[in-house]
Write a structure and sequence with these properties.
Shape: elongated
Number of helices: 5
Oligomer: single chain
Strand order of the largest sheet: 1-2
Order of helices and strands: HHEEHHH
Protein name: GtrA-like protein domain-containing protein
Keywords: Membrane, Transmembrane, Transmembrane helix
Number of domains: 1
Length: about 210
């Protein structure tokens, strides 16, 4: 059999297997697609995060503190903020300042916008109102961002200290910690967003507008 024939046969086999899986286990197939797309979005975030950090690294934003919404205190008595980005470079013992906050949030925002359209069209094949779905997606995004930011304060310091000081990796450790914290952030979003998507991305029988209207 020719190479083209083998490839065609393999493709047909995969297509047939996928069709059977969707028919027999529709929810599992849907979750698998969600999982694959979410991981693609996570990879995108991992690429964007250091890119934006490098852009802001040489600006005064690093020296601009961004610490808001205090919710108690740390074990050492210092204030615990939901968004806690103290002024100064992380390598120098600071929290990255407004530069770190913007790098994180811009990377997440870009990835989640792409995720919204990909999950809606590919995973859930929704044809309900895109504006209504976008509104609830935005609400969920804000809530998840706040929760993830609050959790970040619990592990950010130890993670960066481990990679940069304990392992002695220096700048490589800082980049590794960036990736590790972004993976944790993505994992939180992954498990929370799936049930939310199941609710906001509807398939309306007889609606041929593909979500352009009610």
């Amino acid at each position: 059999m020719s190479k083209e024939g083998v490839e065609t046969s393999l493709f047909s086999g995969v297509t047939s297997f996928w069709a059977k899986l969707k028919n027999k286990y529709p929810n599992s197939a849907q979750f698998l697609v969600f999982f694959l797309l979410s991981n693609g979005v996570t990879v995108l975030q991992l690429l964007l995060m250091p890119f934006f950090r490098s852009i802001f690294a040489n600006t005064t934003l690093v020296s601009t503190s961004f610490q808001i919404w205090q919710v108690g205190t740390n074990t050492d008595g210092s204030p615990y903020y939901i968004f806690d980005y103290a002024a100064g470079a992380i390598a120098a013992g600071g929290g990255g300042g407004l530069a770190y906050f913007l790098a994180v949030q811009i990377a997440i925002a870009i990835a989640q916008i792409i995720n919204f359209f990909a999950q809606r069209s590919i995973t859930f094949k929704s044809n309900s109102s895109i504006w209504r779905a976008a509104f609830w997606y935005f609400v969920a995004y804000v809530i998840i961002t706040i929760v993830a930011a609050a959790a970040l304060g619990l592990y950010q310091g130890p993670v960066y200290n481990f990679f940069m000081n304990t392992l002695g990796w220096g700048s490589l450790g800082e980049t590794s910690a960036d990736i590790f914290t972004m993976i944790i952030n993505s994992a939180i979003s992954f498990w929370v967003f799936f049930p939310i998507f199941k609710i906001i991305f509807k398939q309306v029988p007889g609606n041929e507008t593909s979500g352009k209207g009610e």
